[in-house]
Each structure stands twice: as structure tokens, then as C-alpha cells.
Write a structure and sequence with these properties.
CATH class of the largest domain in chain A: Alpha Beta
Domain Enoyl reductase (ER) (chains A, B): 15-334
Number of domains of chain A: 2
Number of helices of chain A: 9
Number of strands of chain A: 15
Keywords (chains A, B): Oxidoreductase
Order of helices and strands of chain A: EEEHEEEEHEHEHEHEHEHEHEHE
Protein name (chains A, B): NADP-dependent oxidoreductase
Strand content of chain A: 25-35%
Structural class of chain A: alpha/beta
InterPro entries (chains A, B): ADH-like_C, ADH_N_2, ER, GroES-like_sf, MDR_fam, NAD(P)-bd_dom_sf
Oligomer: homodimer
Shape of chain A: globular
CATH architecture of the largest domain in chain A: Alpha-Beta Complex
CATH topology of the largest domain in chain A: Quinone Oxidoreductase, Chain A, domain 1
Largest interface: A-B, 33 and 33 residues
Pfam families (chains A, B): ADH_N_2 (PF16884), ADH_zinc_N (PF00107)
């Protein structure tokens, strides 16, 4: 049997993650103890949040320790099992970490493996619409954003993992949906393929002018994945009682200077508006409801799923940085082995 | 009869308001038309919000026009009446503007005069706890802050008009209350006289250390009147599901550079917390309920009211700037005539 290959955190990055922040290790695969399983990782989810997990300090989840295998969600196939919970050949989703094989107790809390069905949806969908990004989008939008039919919803990172589902769910709820994304290709995609009403290409257009043009009734819900100047600009266009969902701030994650606070936050006061932070884990007891609803919409062809697959575990460092350079187009997934 | 003396807006201020931004005008008092009243102004309310009204641009209320009498709330006595709504000698509260006499229709919408009873409470109280600051504090805290017994509430501008009532109401609701104010005298006052649990003197102490010391259980509700560094520091100490009420940002109102956005706003994400803006006018249909509750607590000696009275309409420009220099101690009121 082959050995395990792992990416471990070697140093806490300053700014963009460098190759030297990672350590590649190779280990023999140890025999299973009773109750344990071995999962062969097929696909890894690459998420902006991973950059935050590499930092020290209090957050919604403990930081990855120096020397620890980098945390990541993934899907895989059970290669061996000494647990009644899973059989060899089962497809599973869970916290595999950035490695070829995950080995441990079948009921490990932090890995939290559960079976998935490759006949219902492609495996990568379980890392996207039917995975964490989908749950983030579905619950964050409906519970914190609370869009009502006829309202205008704006979402940044519109072609990304979370943004694509936010916009499509908002369309299903009867909203006018305007995306913000980088580049003509992404903008064309969310409008033509995903059915957004419009998309502002922040790399080539003025976001301010775009909002004025495409949100003639103002902005009722803004789902923010990026922070920085875009958040500040949207704040100038919000309506009375608007809801801003703070899901992420990818523009700020590699800052070596302090985070750029929203200079226009007093628009919250003028408009009696609200800005609220969300973390997907809070909805864990209702994931099954979100998966059921999104699965239904997908089966009906009402919601599409777009993944950007990079091949080869060895390309993990380069692939992760694509997120912060806006180079991925759709949910970024790293294929570790052929399914 | 004497003439009317008025302060009109001469220019839109840049930074701190200068004497040249005002024009003093003197006019004869015209005879009343049918349905009109003349109110002799006794006390004027000086509020941080007035600085915002002097700026151009969209806000929750239209800007004061150049040449217009400066907007202000006041209490006065009806000097003459040709309306059945008010009799000469009635005490009233409403939008008098910065002048000696207000003359116009008894049912003028923007002035919105209503009778007050000087036997129930001192006249100045109707510009403080039983007026707009009291309503702002009461409804902003209870409706947006939603404090629960046992939670920790922090309020900045603690000795100011809104802050003093926020803290006292939170104490009545069973919360631990920590104020932030400038100077030992103000801090001693809110603790000893108003019954706050603690007060941090931001001019002489580290706010960060003070919060660590006085909020050992973290911060559940932060009622923000000041913005700037203090908001940013409190953001580092908030609890899961904390509520931040954005009532004002007095530290930023005279900026000639962009407003300082809260650099630590991603603490909202980490803590699934909320930041919401409030404007008192939204609660206008329930002011009577707020006045009844605050009046009851005042009558029972559970809530105190502290005003800082400056004398003489001619001192209006200097008095207004006291707010932005932190020089007032309690709700700032300008006495225009002896009651």
C-alpha cells in the first residue's frame, strides 16, 4: 500500500501564504485499530476561511497548530473499515485534512464523516452546493439576510462557492439579484448560466455606477464575501432597514496592515440598517433541511453548481492562493485521486 | 415687545463649526395670523446630531438649508395664541429652532409642539430623560440592544444625554453596566450617582484594559455614541451573538478626513454578532410609552437626570462646540430665557 502524503502548517503566514509556510510529510499507513476507518481522499475543498485558520488568535474555530496537518473539508472513499458505521467503498464527506489518507475513529468529532451518494450528485457537489458553501449561502441568506420577494439582493464573490448559491437562492425567493465578480467571463456566467439579473465586473467597471444602474430601487440585502472597498461602496446604496450579511472578507485576509474597516458604516445609522456576521456551523442541526431544499432545486434544474477543479495534491499551495488572486472560477476543488 | 434673535446657518462647516458658519439675525415679531401661536423659547437642546444636520447629503432628515434658522428642539412657554390648541402660559416642547421666539401654525408638523407639565418634572428634563435623548436611549437599548438580565451592557458617552439613560435603564433590566466617559469626574458621577457598576475613563485609562477588568464575562450589548477607536476596542471584547447599537459617532462628526471605519468589524463574523443603526424618530408612535416608563422610574427615584445648563442664546456657537470637545457634563442645554 502506498504511504500517506500530508501538508502540515510549518509557519504562520505573514500576508500571502508562501511555500515555506508548508511542510510536506510522508508517512507509512498504520494498521487500523478497532472502530477505525481509513478514508482515501478524492477531492479537497479549498476555502477562503482556511487562511484565517492559519492565524493565531481567538476565532470561531481553534487555529491549526504548527506541525498539524492543514484542516480541510473533503470527500473520499472508505478504503478500509474496522467500524460498523462505514463499509469499504462507501463515499463520505468530512474533515479529511490536506492529505491522501485520513485514518482514525469512525465517529471522530472533528472529522465528522457522513455518507454521500455519488448517484444523486457529482462528488464535487458535496463540497459546493450540497456542502459547506451551499449551507453557508442558504442559511446565511435566509436567516440573516431575510430577503423578501421583490427586494434587491446584492452578492459579492458572485461566481464563487458561496456567492453562486446565494444569488440563485435569492432568485428562487423572487428577488432581483445583482452579483459583483471579477472579470467579464465570471459576470457573463452568473447572468447567463445562473440567472442573475445583472453582474458588476469590479475589475473593469465602477461598482458605484454599476449599483446605481442595476439597483434602481436601492439594496435591501447585501451578502458580503469580500469586505474592503466593495463593502464600503455598497453601504452608500442601502435602503431603509437593509440587512448586510458578513460572511467573509477575502480582500482582507492576506493583509499585513490592519483590516480596512467600513468607513461608511454610519449608513447603518442613517438607514436603520443591520450588519450581522454568520458562521455556517451554527446551522449544523439543520443542514439536512438545507441539503434537502437545495437538492430539490438542483434536481429541478433551478439551481446550478459550478466547480473549478485543480488536479494533484502536490499543487495544494498554488491552488489555495488562486482564491486570493481571484483566479478560481466557481467553487475551488483540489482533486487528490481519481474517483 | 422685543425683537426675535435667530441663529441661521451661514455656511456648511468644514471640520469644527466656526463662528463664521453662523449668521445672527434680528427681526421684529410679526402679528399672529389665525391658528398661529408664538412660543417664547426658554431652553434649547444642544445635540451631537445637530452637526450632521449642517452637512449636505442624504441622511435620515433633510439638511438645514443655508440661511435657514438652525434646527433645534426646545421647551418654551406660549407667549400669544390665536389657536384653540394652546393657551398663553402653556409650557410646550417641540422644534423651536435656535431663536428667542418661534411663530407659526399651532399644528406645524416639523415643530410638532406638545404640552408639558413643569410640575411633573423640571423643564430641562423634557429635553433630556423625558425628551429625545431619553427616547433614543430607551427604545434603542430595549429594541435593538435587547439586553437580558445578567448580561453585560457597555455604553460610551456614559455621562452624556443618551448614555446616562441607557446605563440606568440597563441597570433596571438587571444588567451589569459599564460606562465609558472622559475624565474622573464623569466616571465617578455615573458610578456613584447613577449606579453604573463601573466606568472607564478613556482620557486617562486604557479602554482595552478597562473592558478586560470590568467585563470579565465579555460584552453582550454595546451602545455606541462615539465611534472611532472606542468602537474598535469594544469589538475585540464582544460575546457570541452580541448586539451593537449604533446611535452616533461623535468622535467622527467633525472629521475632514473620511470616517474611521471599525477595523475590527470581522469580530461580528467570529461572534455571529450584529451591529444595527437606530434613529429615534422610528419610535415616535410609542414615545408616550417610553415617557410613561421613564417618568415612573424617575418618580420612584430609580433613574436620575443630569443636565449641564449654559446661559444665553448669544453663547450658542460656543456651547454647541462643547459637545465635540467633551466639555459638557450631562445633557447640554442652553437657557435662552428664565422660566
Amino acid at each position: 500500500m502506498e504511504t500517506n502524503l500530508q501538508f502540515r502548517l510549518a509557519a504562520r503566514p505573514v500576508g500571502m501564504v508562501k511555500d515555506s509556510d508548508w511542510q510536506q510529510t510522508e508517512e507509512p499507513l498504520r494498521p487500523l485499530a478497532d472502530g477505525e476507518i481509513r478514508v482515501q481522499v478524492l477531492y479537497l475543498s479549498l476555502d477562503p476561511a482556511m487562511r484565517g485558520w492559519m492565524n493565531e488568535g481567538k476565532s470561531y474555530i481553534r487555529p491549526v497548530a504548527i506541525g498539524e496537518v492543514m484542516r480541510a473539508g473533503g470527500v473520499g472513499v472508505v478504503a478500509e473499515s474496522r467500524s460498523p458505521k462505514f463499509a469499504a467503498g462507501d463515499y463520505v464527506s468530512g474533515g479529511t485534512g490536506v492529505q491522501r489518507y485520513w485514518t482514525g475513529p469512525a465517529d471522530d468529532k472533528s472529522a465528522s464523516f457522513h455518507k454521500i451518494d455519488p448517484k444523486l450528485a457529482p462528488l464535487t457537489t458535496y463540497l459546493n452546493t450540497l456542502g459547506m458553501p451551499g449551507m453557508t449561502a442558504y442559511f446565511g441568506l435566509t436567516e440573516s439576510g431575510q430577503p423578501k420577494a421583490g427586494e434587491t439582493v446584492v452578492v459579492s464573490g458572485a461566481a464563487g462557492a458561496v456567492g453562486q448559491t446565494v444569488g440563485q437562492v435569492a432568485k428562487q425567493l423572487g428577488c432581483r439579484v445583482v452579483g459583483i465578480a471579477g472579470g467579464k467571463e465570471k459576470c457573463d456566467f452568473v447572468v447567463r448560466e445562473l440567472g442573475f439579473d445583472a453582474c458588476i465586473d469590479y475589475k473593469n467597471e465602477s461598482v458605484r455606477d454599476g449599483l446605481r444602474q442595476h439597483c434602481p430601487q436601492g439594496v435591501d440585502v447585501y451578502f458580503d464575501n469580500v469586505g474592503g472597498d466593495i463593502l464600503d461602496t455598497v453601504l452608500t446604496r442601502i435602503n431603509l432597514k437593509a440587512r448586510i450579511v458578513i460572511c467573509g472578507a477575502i480582500s482582507q485576509y492576506n493583509n499585513t496592515t490592519p483590516v480596512q474597516g467600513p468607513s461608511n458604516y454610519l449608513s447603518l445609522l442613517v438607514n436603520r440598517a443591520r450588519m450581522e456576521g454568520i458562521v455556517v456551523f451554527d446551522y449544523a442541526d439543520r443542514y439536512h433541511l438545507g441539503i434537502a431544499q437545495l437538492g430539490r432545486w438542483m434536481a429541478e434544474g433551478k439551481i446550478k453548481s459550478k466547480e473549478d477543479v485543480v488536479h494533484g495534491l502536490e499543487n495544494f499551495p498554488t491552488a489555495l492562493n488562486m482564491l486570493f488572486e481571484g483566479k478560481n472560477f466557481g467553487k475551488l476543488v483540489l482533486q487528490v485521486a481519481a474517483p
